[in-house]
Amino acid sequence: MIIKMIWGYITVKKISLILFVVVFSALLVGCGSKKEVILWNPFTGADGKYFTEMVDKYNKEMDPEYKIKSQTIPDMYTKIYTVTNSGKDKDVPDLTVIHAERIPLFVSQKLLDPLDDILSEQSNINADAYLSQAWQAGDVDGKRYAVPLDIHSSVLYYNKDLLNKYAPNALDDNVITIDEIKDIASKAKQDGKVTYPINVETWTAMSFTVQNGGAINDGDTPTINTPEMKKSLETLKELVSIGATQEDGDDSSQLFQSGESVFLQDGTWYAGGLKEIEDLNWGVTNTPAYSPNKIVNWSSSHQFATLKKDRSEAVENEIGNFLEFIRENSLLWADSGQNAASSVVFESDDYSGMPQSFLMENDKQQQSMVIFDFKNNGNTLEALGSVVRDIVFGRVDIDEGLELAQKTVDDKLKEGQ
């Protein structure tokens, strides 16, 4: 009798243990097969909330079987290398938003999957549906590796009241020239006002270089130490020397927001913060030009791409559906200050009232947005950015600085970085 009782007790314990293991395993399987598409984005700034709203809108309106789960990843590019080198698909997101300049490099490093299968059922996603330079940025050697979300540019903000005081007709052609900045500076400094504070100087130097007929690359080869770049930096140095700019170390953004400067060079997305300053009467126009006949606005593009990973057919179909939804519904993203790359959006009446919409008004304006998307862009910008401000404010000789920047990027490429 005692033996039967003990055996019965053991059997119950074994059955309970088996049931526990089965239930626990089922829970694990359920967690591992959660129907989500993991999307990484780099939007750590104010524009991040607009992107999140756009994803939420998709999940709510489309009610997909696989929900899009958007994750903002600080230092995203570093983490991309970490997860792709791990060899574990579970660590790799299903979809990412990357900058156009990264695409040629990532393709050469075999980090991206082409989008052919994902787009096979999305006939509306094609060259005719997007701004041409944004669409072209996703093409490498004839293969489609990315679909554009936007094109974003560096532009010139201006204080309407100050500009009307010092140069009321300067914007009749929608361009502020270098000579007009010099003329305004001679008047503005009498009132203790700054005309053109130095800001995003690397992007501005790149814009001036293209205006001067130069480039920062020859194919994949960086070209920093050139006559055209030297002329561009001489222009910025001259603006410092005549007192058009801020004192070295002053906050250029704060000067503009407090009404102490006529202009400020920054990104289209900067408008989001300006909208909340009640007493600032501002507008936005093109990057300053040597001549109204040649306008160049430094630009980049956020693009949807897929890192190398095995994905189910269902996940790929959901990615395609999401990209098509964004093509038609990215007005919210444009509201953050970006120029939506989809023609459905930038040709709409709602878009035409946005501050940055002037960049899409006609072919000349659209072509003014230049994307510097070549394989070694990252190293080039890093090397150039390390010397530009020191050159402009006279801490480094211009010839020595450009020679150093060129050597820096050349050495990195020799080392295979």
Number of helices: 20
Determine the strand fraction and express it as a percent band.
15-25%
The CATH superfamily of the largest domain turns out to be: Periplasmic binding protein-like II
- Whole-number mean pLDDT: 92
Structurally, the number of domains stands at: 2
How many strand segments? 16
CATH topology of the largest domain: D-Maltodextrin-Binding Protein, domain 2
How would you describe what is shown here?
It is globular and about 65 Å long. It folds into 2 domains: 34-149 and 301-352, Periplasmic binding protein-like II (D-Maltodextrin-Binding Protein, domain 2, 3-Layer(aba) Sandwich); 153-299 and 373-414, Periplasmic binding protein-like II (D-Maltodextrin-Binding Protein, domain 2, 3-Layer(aba) Sandwich). Residues 21-32 have low confidence and may be disordered. Helix 18 (377-385) runs antiparallel to helix 20 (398-414). The strands form 4 sheets. Strands 1, 2, 3, 4, 7 and 14 form a 6-stranded mixed beta sheet that branches. 46% of the residues lie in helices and 15% in strands. It has helices spanning 2-32, 47-62, 76-86, 102-108, 116-119, 132-136, 160-166, 178-188, 201-211, 227-241, 252-257, 271-274, 313-328, 331-334, 343-346, 349-352, 363-367, 377-385, 388-392, 398-414, and strands spanning 36-41, 67-72, 95-99, 112-113, 139-140, 143-144, 147-148, 150-159, 217-218, 221-222, 263-267, 282-285, 297-300, 302-307, 339-340, 369-371. It has 417 residues and is of the alpha+beta class. Strand 1, helix 2 and strand 2 form a beta-alpha-beta unit. The N and C termini lie far apart (78 Å).
